[in-house]
Amino acid sequence: QLVAYEVKRMRAEEGNKQKILRHIRELAEKLYKNENPYPAVTMHTVKKPKEGHHLRVQQKPFPRLDEGLVQWIIDQATAKLQTAPPAVKAEVKCMVPSGPPIAAIMERNGNAMANSARRLEVVRNCISYVFENKMLEAKKLFPAVLRAMKGRAARQCLTQELNLHVQQNRAVLDHQQFDFVIRMMNCCLQDCTAMDEHGIAAALLPLVTAFCRVSPSGSSFPTFCWVSPS
User: Fold this and answer.
1) Residues pairing with 221 in the sheet
2) Which residues are CB-contacts of 97 (< 8 A; sequence separation ≥ 6)?
3) Where is the SBF1/SBF2 domain (predicted)?
4) Is the pTM value of this prediction over 0.70?
5) What single-letter DSSP state applies at residue 191?
6) Are 222 and 209 in contact (CB under 8 A)?
7) What whole-number distance in Å separates Cα of residue 15 and Cα of residue 106?
């Protein structure tokens, strides 16, 4: 219903905080009434008597109860329960129009999508600079790459780019290149969630042993990176 009816209203309210807050309150009331169709029943509590109350002299005797009156009250309550509406709100089906096209709604998320694309481009550029040994440019982009690892798309992009360079036989690195690659992989693994365990983390495992660095004698040897459980 929001998509169908409220898009124009939300656009008109942009920039006016008071209208936005009023609209949010109206939505909150609708959602609350939808989840709580019946008002809460007031529970009457009986206060606990104080200590030593039975020792007081001014004690009023408890009145005798009329058995017929008590039974009449019980019968009245039972009759009301039998005619009471069901506790669960009956589902009312209704047809909601499709509303504006999806493009009109998604254009508001255009900035977020553009930001995501820019992050992926930064990751690709930084990896390219590292393997092209342009370390000054790579250092400028490196902090942004580490921040981008919080997003799943950036972690996937890192894995794909590193795997591509391994396939191109570009896995032998000097010390500085190797340090940059290992730090990016380590940050990626630390930011992985349980959803990435069988995807990104599993794809990074063979890459951990694929990259080598050149020793002073000219030979290459692999070095492993370790990630703490945290």
Assistant:
1) 213
2) 4
3) 99-213
4) no
5) H
6) yes
7) 19
